[in-house]
Amino acid sequence: MFTDPLGDCSPNDKRIYASILVLIASADGELVREEFCTIEALMGRILIHPEVRIDIRNLLNDPPDLDELLLTIDSSLIKFVLRDAALVAAVDGAYDAAEMKMIRQLAAAAEVEDDTLKEIFDWVNSGLEWHHQSLNILGL
User: Fold this and answer.
1) Beta-carbon-side half-sphere exposure of residue 97 (alpha carbons within 13 Å)
2) pLDDT tens per residue across span 35-59
3) Structural domain boundaries of the chain?
4) pTM for this one?
């Protein structure tokens, strides 16, 4: 993965970021392999400590409340979460209605307009297409 200013956040902000991604991934009642792998990669990218990752994974059994998490973070972090939540939600091939509801809640909290949200979805789609293109190149 590429580096990101999100890696400079406090450990608590990183925990909140990852917690929200877990909420998005589990919003539809199931966590698929692609979502889990994406969350793990995103946590690795910002160097979340392995012991903290265990705590975050445990949130799948007892998820926190999104509204409470949003009260504790600033708008720039919400924008990072929004970007990466769109990726987590899309990686299994479809946006679930419950995932979309949370993504829209994140967008509202970050004061991101619908046009910008569409650009994020377009960015996710082009990124997934870019990644899958490598499989075609390699004949896989």
Assistant:
1) 0
2) 989 999 999 999 899 999 989 988 8
3) 9-137
4) 0.91
